[in-house]
Amino acid sequence: AQSVTQLDSQVPVFEEAPVELRCNYSSSVSVYLFWYVQYPNQGLQLLLKYLSGSTLVKGINGFEAEFNKSQTSFHLRKPSVHISDTAEYFCAVINTGGFKTIFGAGTRLFVKA
Amino acid sequence: NAGVTQTPKFQVLKTGQSMTLQCAQDMNHEYMSWYRQDPGMGLRLIHYSVGAGITDQGEVPNGYNVSRSTTEDFPLRLLSAAPSQTSVYFCASSTGRGDQPQHFGDGTRLSIL
Predict the structure, then answer these.
(1) What percent of chain A has pLDDT above 70?
(2) How does DSSP classify residue B73?
(3) CA-CA-CA-CA dihedral for B38, A76, A98, B85, to nearest 10
(4) Do the beta carbons of residue A85 and residue A111 sit within 8 Å?
(5) CB contact under 8 A, B42 and A103
(6) Residue A61 has what DSSP assignment?
(7) How far is CA B67 from the centre of its chain?
(8) pLDDT tens sequence across B57-106
(9) Is residue A60 classed as helix, strand or coil in its secondary structure?
(10) Cβ pair A32:B99 closer than 8 A
(11) How far apart are CA B113 and CA B108, in angstroms?
């Protein structure tokens, strides 16, 4: 079975500052990793995904994430955030032979002017 | 490009009432699922389907029924609404391949009085 832990429930940050949203996962088998973003009153949409290969993956809106197999982490980063990045971010995992996605509890990012 | 469409967007029910949340997708996806989202708990899987005529229980199935008579539609039925079912419900679809993301509807916000 897999599990996902998002280490921060809320992250306040000032506009143009860098941000890191932390995600750790647990699995006994190979997994694919995803980050989704949820803007207010909307469904989740894909931000980026790691399947294999380069451990640094780039997504939409200037976000990137780094897969670290030894630390079983997949932290999300952005070097300079905007007010419009205010949203909830979900880390998710799925085993490579499966179809059921396991989501973390979410991290709410607040970007302040 | 409709994607995943959920109706209604909002609903208020009285305890004991029944209702059906509708979900339709136009991407010919085999895999569909229903989640509920509650504060601090991320998304919890209620039921899922890997194709027409095939459904299975997720993490929190009690009090809900589903059916999948066509590839496009996956309705969720509340049999006898309870206040504990007050939540935001999301329908999602995907190809069923683990390396492909899920596509979400905009959600149904349900209050049970």
Answers:
(1) 100
(2) B
(3) 0
(4) yes
(5) yes
(6) G
(7) 11
(8) 999 999 999 999 999 999 999 999 999 999 999 999 998 888 888 999 99
(9) helix
(10) yes
(11) 16
Question: A29, A39, A103, A108: best mutation site toward chain B, by most B Cβ within 10 Å?
Answer: A103
* All residues at 6 or more sequence positions from B23 whose CB lies less than 8 Å from its CB, including other chains: B4, B5, B6, B32, B34, B73, B74, B75, B76, B91, B105
pLDDT value, residue B12: 97
Distance CA B85, CA A21 (A): 30
Using CA atoms of A99, B39, A8, A54 in order, give the dihedral in degrees to the nearest 10.
Answer: 20
Q: Which of A48, A101, A107, A108 to mutate to test the interface with B (most CBs of B within 10 A)?
A: A101
Contact flag B101-A98 (C-beta cutoff 8 Å): no
Residue with the two structure tokens 């008579």: B69
- Chain A residue nearest residue B103, CA to CA: A45
Per residue in A23-51, pLDDT (tens digit) is 999 988 889 999 999 999 899 999 999 99
- Residue A70, judged by CB atoms within 10 A of its CB (0-12, 13-18, 19+), counts as exposed
Residue that the structure tokens 């998710």 belong to:
A92
Tell me the C-alpha distance between B86 and B88, whole Å.
Answer: 7
Quote the tokens at residue A48: 């980026």
**Residues belonging to chain B with any Cβ–Cβ distance to chain A shorter than 8 Å:** 4, 31, 33, 35, 40-43, 45, 48, 50, 58, 90, 92, 94, 96-99, 101-102, 104-107
Q: What's the mean per-residue pLDDT of chain A? A: 94
